[in-house]
Amino acid sequence: QVVLVESGGGLVQAGGSLRLSCEASGLAFRTLNMAWFRQAPGKEREFVAAVIYSGGSTYYSDSVKGRFTISRDNTKNIVYLQMNSLKPEDTAVYYCAANRWSQGVRRMSDSYDYWGQGTQVTVSS
Fold it and tell me: In terms of DSSP bridges, do strands 10-13 and 68-73 run parallel, antiparallel, or are they unpaired?
């Protein structure tokens, strides 16, 4: 079992930055692929970014590429999402997700077995 706890959400003006954190406990963190998804009101949950278990490869949606950076610290069991140049359309609840290394990094939410409770990010115009 893996428990994921997100933090770092909040209210920020357009153009600003936030850094989300997700701390994992349970299974060995270094064996988990980690991802961030988001869900805006009335919309489906969408993929934002992911990092492979080793940290060697990262993946981004087209909507955040060049603005967001995902990283992980396997010594602290934490994955980060640095969000720069935020836009009002980035407003959503952001979720941390994990799956085992053998499942591979996927962009589909049903590929992930473990989820955090979510953290709200609101970007004002």
Answer: unpaired
Output the DSSP codes for 75-114: TTTEEEEEE-S--GGG-EEEEEEEEEGGG---SSGGG--E
**Mean predicted confidence (pLDDT) in 88-103:** 96
pLDDT digits (tens, 9 = 90+) for 27-69: 799 999 999 999 999 999 999 999 999 999 999 999 999 999 9
Q: How far apart are CA 6 and CA 95, in angstroms?
A: 7
Bridge partners (DSSP) of residue 73 are: 78
Quote the CA–CA distance of 4 and 34 in Å, as a whole number.
10
Cα separation, 114 vs 57, whole angstroms? 20
Q: What is the C-alpha separation between 11 and 88, in angstroms, rounded?
A: 11
Q: What pLDDT does 2 receive?
A: 93
Which two structure tokens, joined as six digits, stand for 84? 């720069």
Other Cβ atoms less than 10 A from the Cβ of 59: the count is 17
What is the pLDDT, as a whole number, of residue 27?
78
Taking residue 61's Cβ as centre, other Cβ atoms within 10 Å add up to 16
